[in-house]
């Protein structure tokens, strides 16, 4: 499985939580009839897409000698290892051993294959452990399922731990400072009070004295995959549709890298949708990348032990809550593995 019984709570906390779904890469990274090596939770995987568009995700390890399957050859419905030609299908089953036909490897599922879903132009995969190989229930973000909402996916990879990316999203107050010069977050007070409001799927972290002016609220949603929803006011020059929303996710690539996924969305239809899409691609997208670049520079500049030398205050309640939640889950997963070992 994806999590060995040797994993400690510290390792899980650093490389990503198990027994849940994670975003992997944009779907466009794997064209029909192609395959691509990816790293998620510090482990190497192979994304394999058949010519009909069907996507599979396999451990990037040949069951014969451990060579990377990603160096092999795409054979339509299976991959052939470059080292000795062993063929593995999309379920992880060995279908052929050319060097010794009929040997006992054939017909056995010897390569881990993960459940995958595609939504909003992104690949999601379930990462379990020995006790939880079957995927948990997955409820996808509503804005990515609503036909009345139009969304653009923005993806980037940053050199920082995945938790820094998630914590940044649970810290609305940084919008008034780090992004003050942006086209959307220039307005509003630089002082605020916050509260946590519980929901059935997570919690809101929101300003109590300002709404609809800046980055004033965010909701953490834990629905089989962790994601956030937030809203940013738009100036009239951005066209019809009112405020725009962001669905955000983070992929734990390894201890020092994070894949960030941002779906920018608006509820628009007919000619308004066409206008919004035109304005986004010709004007607004570049401005959004400028905001993301500010986040990237800041998060990559944080030392690895930044959270060990902090002095937090009331604005950080959303971050503190997130850390406690993730630390508790990492410890619980580690204890479960210790019991399995015992």
Considering the chains and any ligands shown, give keywords for the structure:
7-stranded antiparallel β-sheet; Naphthalene 1,2-dioxygenase Alpha Subunit, Chain A, domain 1; 2 domains; alpha+beta; 4-stranded antiparallel β-sheet; Rieske Iron-sulfur Protein; 342 residues; 18 strands
Task: Offer a concise description of the structure.
This protein is of the alpha+beta class. The chain contains 4 helices and 18 strands.
Can you give a write-up of this model?
With 342 residues, the protein is an alpha+beta fold. It is 21% helix and 31% strand. Helix 1 (9-15) packs across helix 4 and helix 2 (162-169) runs antiparallel to helix 4 (317-341). The longest helix has 32 residues, at 270-301.
Count the beta strands. Answer: 18
Q: Classify the secondary structure makeup into a structural class.
A: alpha+beta
In the predicted model, the low-confidence regions spanning at least 5 consecutive residues are none
Q: Which class of the largest domain in CATH terms?
A: Alpha Beta
- The overall pLDDT average reads 93
Strand order of the largest sheet: 12-18-17-16-15-14-13
Order of H and E elements? HEEEEEEEEEEEEHEEEEEEHH
Strand content: 25-35%
> How many domain modules?
2
Multimerization status = single chain
- The percent range for helix content is 10-25%
What Rg, in angstroms, do the CA atoms define? 22 Å
State the major sheet.
Answer: 7 strands, antiparallel
Total helices: the number is: 4
What general outline do the C-alpha atoms trace?
globular
Q: State the end-to-end CA separation.
A: 18 Å
- CATH architect. name of the largest domain: Alpha-Beta Complex
